[in-house]
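User: Run a structure prediction on this.
Assistant: Running it now.
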Amino acid sequence: MRNEHSDRVTIGAAKQEELHDIFALLDECELPKEGLAPHLSTTLVARNGDEIVGCSALELYQEFALLRSVAVSPLSRGKGLALRLTQATLDLARHHHVMAMYLLTETASAFFSKVGFKSVQRSDVPKKVQQSVEFTTLCPDTATVMMYRLGQDQ
């Protein structure tokens, strides 16, 4: 069943009072929420009216960043929302003068490859990004590591 408001989904900065709803969405999508709160100022949410139907977050490490928590509620999938969120997060990274963005995934490497991310070795990731909670405790060593170099995509 098509949601009559699906074309009205907007993407914008997350608000402090939305953190609980973001965590609920991450739980629903079986993604980790640990370590996200300190990066709320660089977290984006997709809203369908007052409802949070998607999110993505950027952890800044000077000229590098980690993309995490790209999630879309099951009822809002299949409408290009994950792509919109990822592109908006790339734009946010450009705004912060990020040179390269990294991510870890166990399930979405095909999606991120279509966006332009390339698989890399963990050892290729800058040490400051490797010290993130995603790298140190949340994602297993078997997770695929991917990188997107900004500035070459325009």
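The domain at 6-149 is CATH 3.40.630.30 (Aminopeptidase).
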